[in-house]
Amino acid sequence: MRNIKIFKLSNGIRVVHQQLATTKIVHCGIILDIGSRDENIENQGIAHFWEHMAFKGTKRRRSFNIINSLDSVGGELNAYTDKEKVVFYASVRDQYFERAVDVLTDITFHSVFPDYQIEKERGVILEEMAMYHDSPDDSLQDEFESIVYKDHPMGMNILGKPETVNSFTKKDFLNFFKNNLGTDKIAFACVGNITLDEVERMAKKYLEVLVSKKAKARRKRFKLYSPRENVLARTVKQAKCAIGRDAYPMIDDKRIPMFLLVNILGGPGMNSRLNLALREKYGFVYSIDAHYIPYTDTGMFAVFFGTEPKQLNRCISLIKKELTRFCEKPLTSRQLASAKEQMKGQLAMAEENNLSLMLSMGRSVLDIGRVPSLEEIYYQIDEIDSLKLRDIAEDMFDENKMSYLIMEPDKKP
What we know:
The protein contains 15 helices and 11 strands. By secondary structure, it is of the alpha+beta class. It has 2 domains: 4-206, Cytochrome Bc1 Complex, Chain A, domain 1 (2-Layer Sandwich); 229-409, Cytochrome Bc1 Complex, Chain A, domain 1. A hairpin with a 4-residue loop joins strand 9 (288-294) and strand 10 (299-307). It is globular, with a radius of gyration of 23 Å. The N and C termini lie far apart (61 Å).
């Protein structure tokens, strides 16, 4: 049973903590409820650029001091940006817990954005873009999201565009921070052998000093989805393909059944239906994955794979066949029981990763205000029946609502 504690500081920042006596490492992070979907056409890429700039100097630390602060004691300091979150996190031996909290709060809330560092990091991000476009596997999901979420910030690339990245100034970073981040959109998460009293002391010392404020900007909701198709020529040898559509948001009661359905279809297990149908039976693909990604007001279902161009249409037909199977033939009681046990095992193993657990706790507190226990999730899984899964399949796997993205080899010399 999890022993997770959640409390709120006087300025609205939420703190979530789990003490684990079996580890000498503490993982902690600051999770911000802002992301690339809070941008617009003119400033796309600024959340990711801002995350980079947090490491480039504060009022108390220069860039080298930030890099060296935890590295020098064998710890790690990192960050990432996605559609809905910017996250700064650290892993250290528990004796350096306060140092980690000090550095994390400093880079998150007290960056000074030196002009010379902005210019230097601009070049780094443009190089990151070039690497990204050279890797079709990395760009396939983002390109597909631009189809599913066309004309909405959810469909914009997290890295931005060269023209926007080249335009950002210190003022732009400060304004983005000011307009989009309120203290009610901040969570501090911690997992390790640290007492609750110590976590409260650190939170009050380093986080409660922040002035309470509300974000000025409102997040634009995603409302209308229409199926679309697109074919892109790329310098690839394989044909890359994404098939999918919009899906249920995070708070939908169909979320857990949808996870189970997608796990059976194309989850990480080698026994997934798509892996058996396309790899094991015919050898058409090296890997094929199905994903369900829920967001706060929408979600995305997608199947991703790569294959020889001459086999592309056959692969798509086989995928459609598997999707139709769910709609026409409910799972037997034995198949359903096996699928439930497989998913429970995957969840239990995922919870063994303390860093991932810490990050998911922080995100969960921001998204739904609490952290569901494994027992609660298991109960929801156990309540799923085959007819429920068939109803969801008929809704989600409707062929007329699917979008397609194909990256095919560029035939130009």
